[in-house]
Structures are given as structure tokens and as C-alpha cells.
Design brief:
Number of helices: 7
Helix content: over 70%
Distance between the termini: 39 Å
Number of strands: 0
Order of helices and strands: HHHHHHH
Shape: elongated
Length: 133
């Protein structure tokens, strides 16, 4: 069975397509983490429970630590051999973002996309996680 140039070209494209979920996660977390320290985009106005939450955690430095982990995870997920480590850092943060959106903001948004992207990357890296089960 011979392979044609078209089949080889298709294989090369598929090789790069599998990295898209990881790059999307990296972009979202790197942008969110860097935006915290160097405001590039305006923050939405907060009210009610959201405002109380951030007023409580803002002065403690808690959010700065989380944002540092977001940046570290965002960088690590760009390196294919470190994706499993990155997911162990980013998955709990993603769950917390989704829970914040559900319980505080009463409007799930980017948290759903983060969970889906995390699930895709976990599925792609399932061999590295098999020893956990």
C-alpha cells in the first residue's frame, strides 16, 4: 500500500490540529493571568456576591497566587511533554471558575469552555493519567 502526497499532507495537518485545544487553554489562562498583573482589557463591573467575593480575596493576595499558577500552567501546556502536569494545575482552577460562575454570577460562561478544553486535553493525554486509576 503506497501513500500519496495528499495522504501525507492530510496526516501532517491532523498532527497539528490535535494541539488546538491545548493552545486555546494556554491563551485563555495566559491572558487571564497576565491581565491581572498588567491590565490589558477592562474588568467587568461587579455587584452583589461577585463584588463581595473579590473584596474579600483581593487584599489577601490569594488572587495573585492563583494568577501565577494560571501563567505557569499556561506556559507548561504549550510544551507537549508537560501537558499532564499543566492539566493538574489548570483543571482545579477551571472547576473553580465554573463554580464561581454558577454560584456567584448565576451565569455560566467561559468556565464551560475551560472544562470542555480541559477534558479534551485530558483525553488526549490519557496514557499519562492511567497510573492514577
Amino acid at each position: 500500500m503506497t501513500t500519496t502526497k495528499n495522504q501525507i499532507s492530510k496526516y501532517k495537518k491532523m498532527k497539528y490540529i490535535k494541539h488546538i485545544p491545548a493552545f486555546a487553554l494556554a491563551f485563555l489562562f495566559l491572558f487571564g493571568g497576565i491581565n491581572y498583573f498588567f491590565p490589558l482589557a477592562p474588568m467587568p463591573t461587579l455587584s452583589g456576591n461577585q463584588k463581595a467575593f473579590f473584596e474579600l480575596f483581593g487584599p489577601t493576595g490569594y488572587m495573585a497566587v492563583i494568577k501565577v499558577f494560571e501563567i505557569i500552567g499556561g506556559i507548561l501546556i504549550l510544551i507537549p511533554s508537560k501537558r499532564a502536569l499543566a492539566i493538574t494545575i489548570l483543571a482545579p482552577i477551571s472547576v473553580n471558575i465554573l463554580l464561581f460562575e454558577i454560584f456567584m454570577a448565576n451565569a455560566p460562561g467561559i468556565g464551560i469552555a475551560l472544562i470542555v478544553l480541559n477534558a479534551i486535553v485530558i483525553f488526549q493525554e490519557k496514557e499519562k493519567f492511567k497510573s492514577l486509576f
